Every structure is written in C-alpha cells, then in structure tokens.
From TrEMBL:
Sorted UniProt keywords: Endoplasmic reticulum, Membrane, Transferase, Transmembrane, Transmembrane helix
Lineage start: Eukaryota, Metazoa, Ecdysozoa, Arthropoda, Hexapoda
Signal sequence segment: none
GO terms, molecular function: GDP-Man:Man(3)GlcNAc(2)-PP-Dol alpha-1,2-mannosyltransferase activity
Regions crossing the membrane: 6-28, 124-146, 152-173
A GO cellular component annotation in the UniProt record: endoplasmic reticulum membrane
Coiled coil: none
Occurrences of domain ALG11 mannosyltransferase N-terminal (ranges): 43-171
Source taxon at top rank: Eukaryota
Primary location group: endoplasmic reticulum
Name of the protein in question: GDP-Man:Man(3)GlcNAc(2)-PP-Dol alpha-1,2-mannosyltransferase-like
C-alpha cells in the first residue's frame, strides 16, 4: 500500500516539475512583459538594497552610487527597493545626509517598499542560513519585480540569486 502511495507521490512531483513549473514561469514572464510595456518612463534604474536606512558602509556605497548616477544622468529616474517601511523617503534621505554628508536630490529618488524583508534576515534560519537567505532573497526579489520593473537593475547587497530572476524572468539589464 505504501509503495503505491510513494509511486503516485513521485509521479505527482515529476508532473509538477515537468508541466506546472514551466507553465507558471511562462505565464509569469508574459505578465511581467505585458506590465513592462505599460511604463512610459524609458530610463529607470533600480537599486536593490533592503536595508538602505541602516547607516553602515554598504549604505555609504549605495548613496555614493546614487549621487554619481544622478550627476552623470540627471534625466534618469532612480528607484530604491527598500524594506525600511517605517521610514519615509525624506527621513531616509535626511539620514543619509546626516550620516555620510551626501546631499541627495529628493525629487530624483523614488522608493519601492518591500514588506517581506524578514525572509532575508539571518535570525529566521538557525540552520543552513546562507541557503535560507538565498531563497528568501528570491522571494523578496519576486516582490520587488512585481512592485516595479526598471530598465536597469543593480544589486548593492550581494543577493546574487536576484540577478537571474530580474534578467531571465523580468527581461531587465543588469
């Protein structure tokens, strides 16, 4: 009896991997490409930095890159994917100015808030932490991709598994 159950379980798993998963990826890709065509702005750059209000060395690199990009290409719209949902855009920019003495133009920077940042926190995974954070970064990346789809995507936190997500599924330059 249990052999029959095991056989059908394996068969269902194989069918899921062969049929359902590719179809869902194709439908998701179709949805994203259709959503992409509805954007009027053709020059958008998005930085993936879920902890942009933390105030460490990585944040200094982020704000320096944002400032350099804005100075070189002032007509580009800059978006930052952040998980700091408790801070307003003006508070984040003010903190960057106080902490790093970097004056950012508030009108040129837009924030896309991510509500699933907890999936990349190390405390959620007591074992296999890097694997859990990598899978969590893909979950966070899907939320980011569904929230806003830029022309150019830059990851400033080191979540490498978001690159294939944005590149292959989202069709975005990296």
């Amino acid at each position: 009896m249990w052999l029959v159950f095991l056989f059908y379980s394996i068969l269902a798993l194989i069918l899921l991997l062969i049929i359902v998963l590719p179809i869902s990826v194709l439908l998701f890709k179709y949805y994203v490409s259709k959503k992409r065509k509805s954007y009027n702005v053709l020059k958008t750059v998005a930085f993936f930095h879920p902890y942009c209000n933390a105030g460490g060395g990585g944040e200094r690199v982020l704000w320096t890159a944002v400032l350099a990009l804005h100075q070189k290409y002032p007509d580009y719209k800059i978006y930052i994917y952040t998980g700091d949902v408790d801070a307003s855009p003006s508070e984040i920019i003010k903190r960057a100015h106080q902490r790093f003495n970097i004056v950012l133009p508030e009108q040129a920077i837009n924030f896309v808030y991510l509500y699933r940042r907890k999936f990349v926190e190390a405390s959620l995974y007591p074992y296999f932490t890097l694997l859990g954070q990598s899978i969590g970064s893909m979950i966070l990346g899907v939320e980011a991709l569904l929230s806003f789809q830029p022309d150019i995507y830059i990851d400033t936190m080191g979540y490498a598994f978001t690159y294939p997500l944005f590149s292959y599924i989202g069709g975005i330059m990296k």
